[in-house]
Amino acid sequence: MTCIVAGFPSNIAALQFEWAWQNAHSTRHIPHHERISSATTCTKTSPKTGRLRRRPGRPKTSLTDKLSNLHLLLRVPYFSKWPLELRFFSGDVFQFWQTWCQRVDAQISPRIKVWLDKPKEGHDLVPQTHAGLSRKRRRLDAIGRGGVDGVDPTYASLRPVLEKAQLLLEEDKDLACGLCKQSLDPKHDLITVCSQAKCQSIYHMSCLSSQFLKAERTAAMLPGSGYCPSCKTHLSWVELMKEMTLRVRGEIEVRKMLRAKNWQEPSGVPQADALQDEWSDGFDMDEPDEDVLTAADVVDEDSDDAVSLTSVESDASHNSTRGAVVKARSNTKLPTVIEDSDADVIDLLSD
């Protein structure tokens, strides 16, 4: 793996970008006069009729074509407004990207972060103890230390903010928004919490969003970042939404994360291994998730773009449809077939 694109607002949005990148020759996001890859035609003879069938095929692309198409997609209005980040893991590929950016006239949005993430040298991994957990421990120990293995696929970075939010948003407290001064209800209101450790300010999501957009002076619907009105700390809107979404919709994951801190050391296993085992129960990197959507599930790319803003409803409908199909299959009864017995064959032979 040489690079990844991250920071999508939902899994549907990520799949849309993935499909557009893999099908840059036919995606509607790239105008025809700007396309680098052209569609090919595949011919196949039908074994039944003998007629030739012509179908559009995907052209073969080199590394240069892939990076060029990536540059085109990051420049289009639809994707350029998203809080994306492009992370390279290969120095040669990153150098080619920089050279390509200097050659083309148009540039990508400055809000899209691009950097080279090389693995850090000189750090020791977890020692080879407790073979049942050492593999997972080594993987999570490499998180945050650069390279492909350093990519954090967990919510561990949000744990300090979640702990602070749990204390601030207690039900018996009188909560008020730091901007509009109106009361806050943790059960019904979408509340954002400043990620600064010593800041105790909380806000309505709509109030803080309006404040950020006002400071940016743009006509965008979603802000990119802003400063906390109380402590003046620079806050990323994506990180604020990650914490709020996990707190509102991922109660089980949050409960596991916060509970692991109070564990006592089991006999025979170090406490760090026990904490890692508890955390990895909800995220096993060795086993693929059967319910994860792929680009093949995005059938119509020309559908309403508003589907990118919400993913929970899509996931629920996907899972419910799958469950309905499984239930229908399980309820289908096979017809009973009674085969001829061997005695009938013996009677025929004796006749």
Automatic annotation (TrEMBL):
Domain Zinc finger PHD-type: from-to ranges: 176-232
Annotated InterPro entries: SLX1_C, SLX1_endonuclease, Znf_FYVE_PHD, Znf_PHD, Znf_RING/FYVE/PHD
GO cellular component: Slx1-Slx4 complex
Region (Disordered): 299-327
Biased composition (Polar residues): 309-322
SMART domains documented for this protein: PHD
Annotated GO MF terms: 5'-flap endonuclease activity; crossover junction DNA endonuclease activity; zinc ion binding
Origin superkingdom: Eukaryota
Biological process terms in GO annotation: double-strand break repair via homologous recombination
Family annotation (Pfam families): SLX1_C
Keywords, sorted A to Z: Metal-binding, Zinc, Zinc-finger
Protein name (Swiss-Prot/TrEMBL): Zinc finger PHD-type domain-containing protein
Species the sequence originates in: Endocarpon pusillum
